[in-house]
């Protein structure tokens, strides 16, 4: 044994090849935390002292290779002084360079995921042999940073600047064929052959059959680009990347600038450029917020997984109602491996549901995500039925009929009678009280809410709504089913609108009052989109459906009359009266025409502008900050209320619910993180300035207490 540590061990093989095995104790995956880096440094020093070695092969004892750096350590690291951060990166890079500079050939056997720092380790080796089941990539931009362990340097020299920019700036995971085509790996082999192939490659290099020094030289030299090629490549890339990333995500553009700056340098000088630029972006608010989101997402997954022990096994599901929503749920269930009955009251409804599933599958086939055989198998797992005849073997039934309490009551009574005693019943409703719907079933303990967001196949969030009598087993089973569907579930308690819609409608109410007071709705849209929302409030109402918005607003007004009851005729209600329902009938606040891809294109509509003006005060100019405060303060207060009333269990649930359910700007870290960054004292002050607008702008006693004490929702460094 050459070296034995907590994360790495190295043994000498009989052919004088050193075999480095990465196996971080106490963890299900390998990652580059401080312990692993310490072990790697010590292991390389031990290898350097070992006489007579002919080469080195690195492999993993786990199903993954290395998933990246330890994100939990980033929170503290990114808040350190710049000199401290740079010093740590310099030391880490020295370790990776020591691996690259070993006096014999090196190869890595990539058996599974090799991402971020894990792939940067692979790039430091002379040869990369990849399993047919593995994936590689540099996804750091998703955390608001870019590779900092030499990735921008080695990858750009290995596969060319253009390819490296695409890899780094999209952060995508690459399958074996793509990695091999670009030249990021040297070979792709059968999964059970990956280690032996890497060993064979090192032996051939040691014997002189393969020139490893020439390959190493490419990575440690300057990029082979003349001035004209460099200018064309990088200037074009910067413009394109900036247009794709947008102004709120600086790391992709800085990654391009970093590669451009060190293109003419040799490795060690180039790494200094990478380290300095990495430190500048890592210490910025976007990186810190995106890292916080990553940790929140991990917390969300951990919380959901904790329900597993109480959940019943789901072998067959049923969906009641075969419209767009029902068809979407059926598609999601079947495509993720759970066969499903799809019931409706007529053949036309069933055809609509099947057409929706088939449409989604065809798109998958067109994009080469699945083949025709997979499409056929999924469709075969969706069984359309007009009766409850086969429901005796169903484990969970999701009611997704129209948003009408009487219809839902009738359907829930019918399905309960047809289901076995162990089956769980869930209602996909966006507004109707779960406690109210529970009155329709004889055993309310097995009933709860399961609120999907439209479109089902894209939106990651599912709200699992606990009624007063919902059992832990029912909640656990629905959470488990949501996870099987590939969704991120949060458990919320019952109230009008549950969590996401409850906090959305104060935001819409802020918009309604702005328009009432004479602020141009198109300007509001532009300001809120610049704030980071994927679409402004008027556009969002058109997408949701004006009729849906009016219905939900009436539910909110009934549930929270002190602050959500409107005493004026809003533009949304006028649109509804004029049967302008938004995208569903091509006219709302805007008008819509299909583009070449068949997607609705938003266009200015003079008729809509005239209608809005008819229920608005004289036009007034308002600066962007005031518009943002008028829009965001009601939502902030309602989120705080939901947390205080235990509608949501934690700040992580609250923030991820809005990001996954509404598209709250991720670079802001979530709405509670946004409040922390602004400061509760400032939030309260902004709300108090709007006191004349009513109770929507009245903060809670707890918020005032937090402002007084300087408290935050998340721990501060």
TrEMBL record:
Keywords linked to the UniProt accession: Fatty acid metabolism, Isomerase, Lipid degradation, Lipid metabolism, Lyase, Multifunctional enzyme, NAD, Oxidoreductase
One Gene Ontology term from the biological process aspect of the record: fatty acid beta-oxidation
Pathway: Lipid metabolism; fatty acid beta-oxidation
Domain 3-hydroxyacyl-CoA dehydrogenase C-terminal: 497-592
Alphabetized Pfam families for the sequence: 3HCDH, 3HCDH_N, ECH_1
Chain segments annotated as transmembrane: none
InterPro entries registered for this protein in UniProt: 3-OHacyl-CoA_DH_CS, 3-OHacyl-CoA_DH_NAD-bd, 3HC_DH_C, 6-PGluconate_DH-like_C_sf, ClpP/crotonase-like_dom_sf, Enoyl-CoA_hydra/iso, FA_oxidation_alpha_subunit, FadB
Reactions it catalyzes: a (3S)-3-hydroxyacyl-CoA + NAD(+) = a 3-oxoacyl-CoA + NADH + H(+)
A single Gene Ontology CC term: fatty acid beta-oxidation multienzyme complex
CDD domains linked to this entry: crotonase-like
Stated family: In the central section; belongs to the 3-hydroxyacyl-CoA dehydrogenase family. In the N-terminal section; belongs to the enoyl-CoA hydratase/isomerase family.
Protein name: enoyl-CoA hydratase
Organismal lineage: Bacteria, Pseudomonadati, Pseudomonadota, Gammaproteobacteria, Oceanospirillales
């Amino acid at each position: 044994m050459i070296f034995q540590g907590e994360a790495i061990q190295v043994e000498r093989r009989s052919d004088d090849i050193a075999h480095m095995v990465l196996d971080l104790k106490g963890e299900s995956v390998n990652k580059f935390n401080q312990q692993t880096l310490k072990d790697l440094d010590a292991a390389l020093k031990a290898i350097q002292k070992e006489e007579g070695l002919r080469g080195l092969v690195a492999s993993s004892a786990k199903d993954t290779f290395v998933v990246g750096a330890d994100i939990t350590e980033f929170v503290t690291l990114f808040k350190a002084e710049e000199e401290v951060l740079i010093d740590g990166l310099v030391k880490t890079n020295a370790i990776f360079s020591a691996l690259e500079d070993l006096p014999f050939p090196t190869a890595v056997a990539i058996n599974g995921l090799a991402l971020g720092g894990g792939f940067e380790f692979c790039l430091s080796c002379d040869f990369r042999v990849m399993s047919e089941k593995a994936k590689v990539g540099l996804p750091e931009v998703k955390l608001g940073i870019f590779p900092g362990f030499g990735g921008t340097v080695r990858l750009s020299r290995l596969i060319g600047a253009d390819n490296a920019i695409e890899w780094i700036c999209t952060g995508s995971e690459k399958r074996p064929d793509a990695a091999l085509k670009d030249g990021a790996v040297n070979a792709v082999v059968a999964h059970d052959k990956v280690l032996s192939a890497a060993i064979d490659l090192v032996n051939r290099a040691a014997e002189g059959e393969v020139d490893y020094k020439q390959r190493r030289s490419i990575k440690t030299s300057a990029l082979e680009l003349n001035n004209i090629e460099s200018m064309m490549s990088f200037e074009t890339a910067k413009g394109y990347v900036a247009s794709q990333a947008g102004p709120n995500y600086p790391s992709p553009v800085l990654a391009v600038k970093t590669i451009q700056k060190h293109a003419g340098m040799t490795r060690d000088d180039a790494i200094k450029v990478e380290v300095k630029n990495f430190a500048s972006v890592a210490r910025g608010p976007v990186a810190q917020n995106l890292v916080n989101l990553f940790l929140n997402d991990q917390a969300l997954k951990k919380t959901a997984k904790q329900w597993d022990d109480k959940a019943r096994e789901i072998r067959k599901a049923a969906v009641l109602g075969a419209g767009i929503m029902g068809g979407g749920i059926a598609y999601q269930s079947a495509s993720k491996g759970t066969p499903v009955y799809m019931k409706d009251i007529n053949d036309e409804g069933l055809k609509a549901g099947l057409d929706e599933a088939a449409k989604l599958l065809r798109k998958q086939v067109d994009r080469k995500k699945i083949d025709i055989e997979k499409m056929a198998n999924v469709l075969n797992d969706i069984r359309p039925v007009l009766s409850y005849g086969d429901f005796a073997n169903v484990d969970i039934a999701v009611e997704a009929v129209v948003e009408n309490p009487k219809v839902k009551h009738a359907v829930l009574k019918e399905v309960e009678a047809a289901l076995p005693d162990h089956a769980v019943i869930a209602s996909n409703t966006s507004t109707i009280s779960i406690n109210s719907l529970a009155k329709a079933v004889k055993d309310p303990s097995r009933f709860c809410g399961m609120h999907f967001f439209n479109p089902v196949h894209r939106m990651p969030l599912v709200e699992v709504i606990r009624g007063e009598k919902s059992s832990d087993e029912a909640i656990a089973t629905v959470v488990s089913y949501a996870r099987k569907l590939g969704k991120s579930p949060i458990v919320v308690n019952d109230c009008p609108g549950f969590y996401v819609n409850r906090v959305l409608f104060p935001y819409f109410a802020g918009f309604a009052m702005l328009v009432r007071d004479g602020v141009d709705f198109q300007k509001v849209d532009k300001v809120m989109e610049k704030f980071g929302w994927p679409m402004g409030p008027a556009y969002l109402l058109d997408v949701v459906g004006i009729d849906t918005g009016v219905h939900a607003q009436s539910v909110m007004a009934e549930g929270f009359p002190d602050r959500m009851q409107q005493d004026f005729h809003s533009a949304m209600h006028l649109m509804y009266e004029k049967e302008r329902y938004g995208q569903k009938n091509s006219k709302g606040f805007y008008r819509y025409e299909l583009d070449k891809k068949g997607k609705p294109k938003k266009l200015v509509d003079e008729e809509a502008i005239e209608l809005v003006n008819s229920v608005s005060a004289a036009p007034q100019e308002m600066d962007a900050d005031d518009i943002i405060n008028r829009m965001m303060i009601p939502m902030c207060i309602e989120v705080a209320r939901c947390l205080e009333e235990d509608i949501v269990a934690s700040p992580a649930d609250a923030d991820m619910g809005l990001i996954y359910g509404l598209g709250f700007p991720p670079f802001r870290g979530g709405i509670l993180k946004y409040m922390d960054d602004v400061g509760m004292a400032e939030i309260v002050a902004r709300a108090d300035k709007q006191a004349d607008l009513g109770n929507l702008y009245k903060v809670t006693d707890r918020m005032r207490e937090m402002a007084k004490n300087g408290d935050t929702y998340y721990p501060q460094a």
